[in-house]
Amino acid sequence: MEEDCFATQLIYGDGEFNGDGLESFIKKVNLTDCGLAYAVVAVMGPQSSGKSTLLNHLFKTNFREMDAYSGRSQTTKGVWIAKCIGIEPCTIAMDLEGTDGRERGEEDTTFEKQSALFALAISDIVLINMWCHDIGREHAANKPLLKTVFQVMMRLFSPRKTTLLFVIRDKTKTPFELLEPILREDIQKVDVVALSSYEEKEEKFKEEVAQLRQRFMHSISPGGLAGDRRGVVPASGFSFSAQQIWKVIKENKDLDLPAHKVMVATVRCEEIAGEKFNQLTLDKGWLALEKAVERGPIPGFGKKLSSILERYLSEYDSETIYFDEGVRNVKRQQLESEALDFLHPAYITMVGHLHSKALENFKTGVENWLEEGEGFAALVRACKEYCILEFDQGCADAFVQLAGWDASKIKEKLQRDIDAHASSFCSAKLSDLIVNYERQLSTALTEPLESLLESGERDTWTSIRKLLKRETEAALLEFLSAVAGFELDKADITAMEQKIRDYARNVVERKAREEAGKVLIRMKNRFSMVFNYGCDSIPRVWTAGKEDIKTITKEARSASLKLLSVIAAIRLDEKPDKIEKILFSSLMDGTTAPLASTTWEEVPSKDTLLTPVRCKSLWKQFKAETENNVTRALSYQKACRRKNNWVPPMWAIVAMIVLGFSELMLHLRNLDGEFRNGTVAAILSVSSRFLPTVLKIPRPPPGLPPAPQAPQQLHSVVSQSFGNQTPQPNPMPNFISESSVSSSNISSDCNEYS
Questions:
Q1: 390 neighbors 364 (Cβ within 8 angstroms)
Q2: Is the model's pTM score more than 0.85?
Q3: Which residue ranges does the record assign to the GB1/RHD3-type G domain (predicted)?
Q4: Distance separating alpha carbons of residues 133 and 98, to the nearest angstrom
Q5: Nearest alpha carbon to residue 312 among 341, 289, 342, 335
Q6: In whole angstroms, what is the distance from residue 510 CA to residue 504 CA?
Q7: Per-residue pLDDT tens for 69-94?
Q8: Which pLDDT does position 203 carry in this prediction?
Q9: How far apart are alpha carbons 85 and 125 in whole angstroms?
């Protein structure tokens, strides 16, 4: 099957450019893949000079030829193109409409000049078909043809020279060496060849054409007919270039081929870059990588992304290699920049995963390693260094060479986040330590404070200050040892020490305020202990008549008032005050004016627990609630004294003696007989008779309460060492708590207390 030349009309007779036809032709002959390895050969000459015939024989094309038997007339209209068969590299033949044709008239030479300019602009070789007998003649067909060629060449600015090959048709006996100088005059890069007449010497014509054909083989090689490749438009831009050149020519503008070359390169490089970018966005490998990186870090991310990017940039380079270097480099940079902008979010996501992973590893590492007893500051430094190194390694793996993306800002953010977490974690740990030592201090202080404040001794606050100092210093010593590994500033350590000291002081103040709320109960308990028990903790017996109830009452009230003076104010600053003196002189002695102030002299309001007015109110309530105890004790004592002075009448004494003696003698007489029945029986019999006599002895009536019993535990004040808790006294004896007892019952029951 013979190869098709795909003859196509490029420009119609009316000057319209057949763009669709050219695109179809380029696809059919695969011109786009040729790069710069292609050539364009055009033929121009007088009408009916055999141009189409020459091309068909020279390149095996099938342009329409004139039928000599039908008369000479216009055969080719406009411009046609076809692929040269059997010529390497790929060569495109262009058949132009003949000049000086009668169909357009003598005056209409516009299309003739336009087509000539077009042929010279896009062709590597231009065949100028001329009759031999017209050479040298002023008014022959050669003259307007050469005039047209030279006028066109004056308008054409090109860095390379198009080869003009004059084909002398129907050569005569005139030596060829004499014809050639005439044609070379004022023309550069001209070649001349002569052919025999096709009609008269067809075989000779074909033989000469075959020889000429060989000159078109490898025409683009150095020294060939189209060896000058400067400014050649790459095959992929041929269609666009041809259309733009014809457009400029039609607009009757000077044709600047270098500028045109840049324009073609710009358009085609932009088109190719756009194609590659679109292909990149739809690449399956890229889409899979983009989806995967959303879920987490991808090992080898940088290499995978670089491979995808470099593939499309490489394809761009290969497809634009023959276009203007400056243009293609600019467009490549634009493509690269656009592609990197498109890919950059995936890189940011990847680095974001690395940031999150490193930060999480830091958090976990600090918590895990801290349990192993490492110093906190040293641990943070080591863990931070490890995590930053891990982040750097991940960034190196994700690095895209062409992009040169910098992860320094994300690294700086990671460092800030690590520092922030370390600071937060440090604060939390220090807070936990402080809370633990505060709890330890609270435990160590609370119970001793309660005992000391309950004792209400003169040296209570001295003991409290010693307790506070000792426990605080012990806790601080342990605390400073615990925070040594944090490598804190001296100012921070001082602030924490002060916080612990303040907390310990607050524990004391809080406990003191709590005890101040229970001071009335404490005073009543103190009164009961002193009033009901002696110095040896033995209960007092009011029936003995030896107890000075008035003195005991004063001692008990003094002890209670002393307790009130201790609880009245907080004394942690070792500043002397006159609270006790004021209370005793006003409430006990009555030597000073009644308490009417709301502040104590030399005592700050923040340290005041009970104001003078409050102390007066409490004392009044205290006396009212304990006065009944004193009254009842006095009543008991008076009744017992009266009972102890009573003696039975003489007749009653004699009667008891006589009756008792008679009963005794009767039992003794019967004793011998009772023992005859056995020892156990005798004892039982005697007991049954003697018991009623014993039961007749007078007993106290049921209304008088029993004498007080000794408490189960002795009450003692806490020593200054406050190491032991203060024992709680037993409840007051029943007679202290009862509201009233009849004097008659007291009088009749004194025998029980004697």
A1: no
A2: no
A3: 35-229
A4: 18
A5: 335
A6: 10
A7: 444 445 678 899 999 999 988 999 99
A8: 87
A9: 17
Q: pLDDT tens digit string along 125-135?
A: 988 888 777 66
Terminal-to-terminal C-alpha distance of the chain: 157
What gap in Å lies between CA 249 and CA 119, rounded to an integer? 11
Q: What is the rounded distance in angstroms from the CA atom of residue 97 to the CA atom of residue 105?
A: 13
Q: Are 250 and 15 in contact (CB under 8 A)?
A: yes
Contact between residue 126 and residue 42 where contact means Cβ atoms under 8 Å apart: yes
Q: Which residue has the tokens 């009944």?
A: 628
Beta strands in 423-553 (DSSP E): none
Q: What is the pLDDT of residues 176-217, one digit of tens each?
A: 555 566 555 544 456 778 888 877 788 888 888 888 888 888
Phi/psi at 83 (5° precision)? -85, 135
Coil vs helix vs strand at 79 = strand
Bridge pairing between strands 79-83 and 90-96: antiparallel
- Cα 627 to chain centroid distance, Å, stands at 74
- Distant-in-sequence, close-in-space partners of 369: CB < 8 Å, separation ≥ 6: 379, 382, 383
- Rounded distance, CA 423 to CA 413, Å? 15
pLDDT tens string 130-178 = 877 766 655 455 556 566 666 666 665 565 567 888 888 776 655 555 5
Cα–Cα distance, 595 to 295 (Å, whole number): 80
- Can you give the length of the chain in residues? 754
Instruction: Please give the single-letter amino acid code of residue 595.
Output: L
- Report the b/e string of 321-357 with b at 16+ CB within 10 A: ebbbeebbeebbeebbeebbeebeebbebbbebbbeb
User: Which token pair is 693?
Assistant: 């006599």
Contact by Cβ (8 Å): 231, 160: yes
CA distance 192 to 215: 12
Q: How high is the pLDDT of residue 612?
A: 93
Residue 591 structure tokens: 């030597």
* C-beta of residue 439 within 8 angstroms of C-beta of residue 413: no
Cis preceding-peptide flag for 89 (omega within 30 of 0): yes
Report the 10 Å Cβ neighbour count for 549.
16
DSSP run (H or E) holding 664: helix 650-669
**Residues β-bridged to residue 167:** 129, 193
| Full DSSP string of 123-176 | -SEEEEEEEGGGTT-TTSTHHHHHHHHHHHHHHEE-SS-PEEEEEEES--SS-H
**For tokens 């406050």, what's the residue?**
722
Q: How far apart are CA 369 and CA 373, in angstroms?
A: 7
DSSP H helices, 371-459, are: 376-398, 408-455
| Residue pointed to by tokens 């899979």 | 288
Residue 454's CB is within 10 A of a number of other CB atoms, namely 22
Whether the Cβ atoms of residue 387 and residue 358 lie closer than 8 Å to each other: yes
Report d(CA 304, CA 286) in Å as an integer. Answer: 9
Rounded CA-CA distance 542/661 in Å is 37
pLDDT bin (cut points 50, 70, 90) of residue 723 is very low
What 3 state SS string does 11-50 have?
ECCCCCECHHHHHHHHHHCCHHHHCCCEEEEEEECECCCC
| Interatomic CA distance for residues 559 and 626, integer angstroms | 13
The arrangement of strands across the sheet holding 163-169 comes to 8-11, 79-83, 90-96, 38-44, 125-131, 163-169, 190-194
